[in-house]
Fold this protein.
Amino acid sequence: QSALTQPPSASGSPGQSVTISCTGTSSDVGGYNYVSWYQQHPGKAPKLMIYEVSKRPSGVPDRFSGSKSGNTASLTVSGLQAEDEADYYCSSYAGSNNLGVFGTGTKVTVL
Amino acid sequence: QITLKESGPTLVKPTQTLTLTCTFSGFSLSTSGVGVGWIRQPPGKALEWLALIYWNDDKRYSPSLKSRLTITKDTSKNQVVLTMTNMDPVDTATYYCAHWSFMLFSFDYWGQGTLVTVSS
Protein backbone atom coordinates (compact mmCIF):
# COMPACT_ATOMS: atom_id res chain seq x y z
CA GLN A 1 0.00 0.00 0.00
CA SER A 2 1.60 3.25 -1.13
CA ALA A 3 0.62 6.66 0.18
CA LEU A 4 -1.87 8.58 -1.90
CA THR A 5 -0.31 11.49 -3.79
CA GLN A 6 -1.21 15.07 -2.88
CA PRO A 7 0.42 18.35 -3.92
CA PRO A 8 2.71 19.64 -1.15
CA SER A 9 1.08 23.03 -1.05
CA ALA A 10 -1.86 25.12 -2.19
CA SER A 11 -2.85 28.68 -1.51
CA GLY A 12 -5.52 31.27 -2.04
CA SER A 13 -6.63 34.68 -0.86
CA PRO A 14 -9.49 35.12 1.60
CA GLY A 15 -12.80 34.53 -0.13
CA GLN A 16 -11.25 32.57 -2.97
CA SER A 17 -11.41 28.80 -3.53
CA VAL A 18 -8.66 26.22 -3.39
CA THR A 19 -8.82 22.64 -4.63
CA ILE A 20 -6.55 19.83 -3.45
CA SER A 21 -6.13 16.61 -5.40
CA CYS A 22 -5.52 13.12 -4.03
CA THR A 23 -4.37 10.48 -6.49
CA GLY A 24 -4.40 6.79 -5.78
CA THR A 25 -5.06 3.62 -7.72
CA SER A 26 -7.93 1.38 -8.67
CA SER A 27 -7.17 -0.59 -5.49
CA ASP A 28 -8.01 2.31 -3.22
CA VAL A 29 -9.43 5.67 -4.37
CA GLY A 30 -10.72 4.37 -7.67
CA GLY A 31 -12.16 1.18 -6.29
CA TYR A 32 -14.34 2.48 -3.48
CA ASN A 33 -16.40 5.53 -2.56
CA TYR A 34 -14.70 5.67 0.82
CA VAL A 35 -12.42 8.68 0.60
CA SER A 36 -12.08 10.89 3.67
CA TRP A 37 -10.40 14.24 4.22
CA TYR A 38 -8.82 15.43 7.46
CA GLN A 39 -7.75 18.91 8.52
CA GLN A 40 -4.82 19.31 10.89
CA HIS A 41 -3.72 22.54 12.52
CA PRO A 42 -0.17 22.75 13.88
CA GLY A 43 0.25 20.75 17.07
CA LYS A 44 -3.31 19.44 16.92
CA ALA A 45 -4.93 16.12 16.13
CA PRO A 46 -6.53 15.67 12.70
CA LYS A 47 -10.20 16.50 12.30
CA LEU A 48 -12.56 14.71 9.94
CA MET A 49 -13.90 17.11 7.31
CA ILE A 50 -15.28 14.86 4.56
CA TYR A 51 -16.25 11.18 4.46
CA GLU A 52 -17.52 8.89 1.71
CA VAL A 53 -16.03 11.22 -0.93
CA SER A 54 -18.44 14.11 -0.48
CA LYS A 55 -20.34 13.92 2.81
CA ARG A 56 -19.76 16.38 5.64
CA PRO A 57 -19.94 15.41 9.32
CA SER A 58 -22.16 17.53 11.49
CA GLY A 59 -20.57 20.89 12.23
CA VAL A 60 -18.31 21.08 9.19
CA PRO A 61 -19.07 24.20 7.13
CA ASP A 62 -20.53 23.69 3.67
CA ARG A 63 -17.56 25.62 2.31
CA PHE A 64 -15.84 22.24 2.31
CA SER A 65 -16.80 19.88 -0.49
CA GLY A 66 -15.41 16.68 -1.94
CA SER A 67 -15.58 14.83 -5.23
CA LYS A 68 -13.96 11.97 -7.10
CA SER A 69 -13.18 11.04 -10.67
CA GLY A 70 -11.49 7.78 -11.42
CA ASN A 71 -8.45 7.33 -9.21
CA THR A 72 -8.35 10.98 -8.10
CA ALA A 73 -10.34 12.57 -5.31
CA SER A 74 -10.51 16.29 -4.65
CA LEU A 75 -11.27 18.60 -1.75
CA THR A 76 -12.44 22.12 -2.47
CA VAL A 77 -12.51 24.86 0.12
CA SER A 78 -14.65 27.76 -1.03
CA GLY A 79 -14.73 31.20 0.51
CA LEU A 80 -11.34 30.71 2.13
CA GLN A 81 -11.01 31.96 5.68
CA ALA A 82 -7.93 32.47 7.82
CA GLU A 83 -8.82 29.49 10.00
CA ASP A 84 -8.73 27.20 6.96
CA GLU A 85 -4.94 27.51 6.91
CA ALA A 86 -3.84 24.01 7.87
CA ASP A 87 -2.55 20.70 6.57
CA TYR A 88 -5.05 18.50 4.78
CA TYR A 89 -4.79 14.74 4.36
CA CYS A 90 -6.90 12.44 2.24
CA SER A 91 -7.45 8.82 3.15
CA SER A 92 -8.97 5.89 1.33
CA TYR A 93 -10.32 2.46 2.13
CA ALA A 94 -8.25 -0.21 0.40
CA GLY A 95 -10.29 -3.37 0.73
CA SER A 96 -11.54 -5.59 3.51
CA ASN A 97 -8.21 -7.36 4.02
CA ASN A 98 -6.19 -4.17 4.16
CA LEU A 99 -5.77 -1.08 6.22
CA GLY A 100 -6.67 2.20 4.67
CA VAL A 101 -4.04 4.56 3.34
CA PHE A 102 -3.36 8.25 3.93
CA GLY A 103 -2.22 10.84 1.47
CA THR A 104 1.09 12.70 1.54
CA GLY A 105 -0.58 15.85 2.86
CA THR A 106 -1.12 19.36 1.50
CA LYS A 107 -0.36 22.58 3.31
CA VAL A 108 -3.00 25.19 2.55
CA THR A 109 -1.93 28.78 3.00
CA VAL A 110 -4.38 31.67 3.12
CA LEU A 111 -2.54 34.60 1.59
CA GLN B 1 -19.27 12.37 24.18
CA ILE B 2 -16.45 10.29 22.73
CA THR B 3 -12.94 10.91 24.02
CA LEU B 4 -9.67 9.03 23.57
CA LYS B 5 -6.32 9.50 25.24
CA GLU B 6 -2.96 7.92 24.52
CA SER B 7 -0.49 7.02 27.24
CA GLY B 8 2.92 5.45 27.33
CA PRO B 9 6.63 6.28 27.46
CA THR B 10 7.87 9.47 25.89
CA LEU B 11 11.38 8.08 25.39
CA VAL B 12 12.45 4.58 24.38
CA LYS B 13 15.85 3.21 23.46
CA PRO B 14 16.64 1.58 20.12
CA THR B 15 15.73 -2.13 20.01
CA GLN B 16 13.28 -1.75 22.89
CA THR B 17 9.58 -2.55 22.66
CA LEU B 18 7.08 0.30 22.79
CA THR B 19 3.75 -0.23 24.52
CA LEU B 20 1.06 2.41 24.09
CA THR B 21 -2.37 2.41 25.67
CA CYS B 22 -5.45 4.14 24.32
CA THR B 23 -8.07 4.74 27.01
CA PHE B 24 -11.43 5.82 25.69
CA SER B 25 -14.91 6.76 26.85
CA GLY B 26 -18.27 7.44 25.26
CA PHE B 27 -18.46 4.19 23.31
CA SER B 28 -17.94 0.46 23.72
CA LEU B 29 -15.64 -1.69 21.63
CA SER B 30 -18.17 -4.47 21.92
CA THR B 31 -20.66 -2.48 19.82
CA SER B 32 -21.01 -3.64 16.23
CA GLY B 33 -19.44 -1.34 13.68
CA VAL B 34 -16.88 0.20 15.99
CA GLY B 35 -13.10 0.10 15.81
CA VAL B 36 -10.05 1.79 17.28
CA GLY B 37 -7.00 2.54 15.22
CA TRP B 38 -3.45 3.73 15.74
CA ILE B 39 -1.92 6.32 13.44
CA ARG B 40 1.50 7.94 13.72
CA GLN B 41 3.09 11.10 12.37
CA PRO B 42 6.86 11.69 12.37
CA PRO B 43 7.79 15.33 13.01
CA GLY B 44 6.96 17.40 9.93
CA LYS B 45 5.76 14.38 7.98
CA ALA B 46 2.52 12.74 6.91
CA LEU B 47 0.10 10.54 8.78
CA GLU B 48 0.66 6.79 8.64
CA TRP B 49 -1.97 4.19 9.46
CA LEU B 50 -0.48 1.52 11.78
CA ALA B 51 -3.19 -0.82 12.99
CA LEU B 52 -6.93 -1.15 13.51
CA ILE B 53 -8.95 -3.45 15.76
CA TYR B 54 -12.67 -3.98 15.29
CA TRP B 55 -15.45 -4.74 17.76
CA ASN B 56 -15.32 -8.42 16.74
CA ASP B 57 -11.55 -8.60 17.45
CA ASP B 58 -10.70 -8.61 13.76
CA LYS B 59 -7.37 -6.84 13.24
CA ARG B 60 -5.58 -5.10 10.41
CA TYR B 61 -1.94 -4.05 10.25
CA SER B 62 0.25 -1.91 8.05
CA PRO B 63 1.92 -4.38 5.67
CA SER B 64 5.32 -2.72 6.13
CA LEU B 65 5.16 -2.91 9.93
CA LYS B 66 3.08 -6.03 10.45
CA SER B 67 5.91 -8.12 11.84
CA ARG B 68 6.55 -5.55 14.59
CA LEU B 69 3.01 -4.63 15.62
CA THR B 70 0.42 -6.17 17.89
CA ILE B 71 -2.93 -4.56 18.69
CA THR B 72 -5.21 -5.84 21.44
CA LYS B 73 -8.32 -4.66 23.23
CA ASP B 74 -9.65 -4.89 26.77
CA THR B 75 -13.34 -4.17 26.47
CA SER B 76 -13.91 -4.17 30.22
CA LYS B 77 -11.30 -1.45 30.71
CA ASN B 78 -12.19 0.51 27.55
CA GLN B 79 -8.60 0.25 26.40
CA VAL B 80 -6.70 -0.65 23.25
CA VAL B 81 -3.00 -1.48 23.47
CA LEU B 82 -0.45 -1.24 20.66
CA THR B 83 2.97 -2.83 20.97
CA MET B 84 5.77 -2.16 18.52
CA THR B 85 8.96 -4.17 18.79
CA ASN B 86 12.54 -3.34 17.85
CA MET B 87 12.13 0.42 17.98
CA ASP B 88 14.42 2.56 15.83
CA PRO B 89 15.05 6.31 15.73
CA VAL B 90 12.97 6.49 12.53
CA ASP B 91 9.97 5.44 14.65
CA THR B 92 10.13 8.78 16.46
CA ALA B 93 6.67 10.23 15.97
CA THR B 94 3.46 11.43 17.52
CA TYR B 95 1.23 8.41 17.97
CA TYR B 96 -2.54 8.90 17.82
CA CYS B 97 -5.39 6.57 18.58
CA ALA B 98 -8.74 7.23 16.97
CA HIS B 99 -12.32 5.95 16.90
CA TRP B 100 -13.22 4.20 13.64
CA SER B 101 -16.80 4.45 12.50
CA PHE B 102 -18.16 1.92 10.03
CA MET B 103 -21.04 4.31 9.36
CA LEU B 104 -18.62 6.95 8.13
CA PHE B 105 -15.78 4.66 7.09
CA SER B 106 -13.52 7.18 8.76
CA PHE B 107 -11.78 8.13 11.99
CA ASP B 108 -14.28 10.55 13.48
CA TYR B 109 -12.72 11.10 16.91
CA TRP B 110 -9.02 11.38 17.70
CA GLY B 111 -6.91 11.43 20.80
CA GLN B 112 -4.53 14.33 21.41
CA GLY B 113 -1.53 12.22 20.46
CA THR B 114 1.62 11.34 22.34
CA LEU B 115 5.15 12.07 21.15
CA VAL B 116 7.48 9.10 21.38
CA THR B 117 11.19 9.70 20.86
CA VAL B 118 13.54 6.83 20.11
CA SER B 119 17.06 7.62 21.21
CA SER B 120 19.87 6.05 23.15
Q: What stands out?
A: Residues 31 and 107 of chain B are 16 Å apart (CA to CA). The longest strand of chain B covers residues 93-101. Chain B touches chain A through 21 residues (CB under 8 Å). The mean pLDDT of chain B is 96.
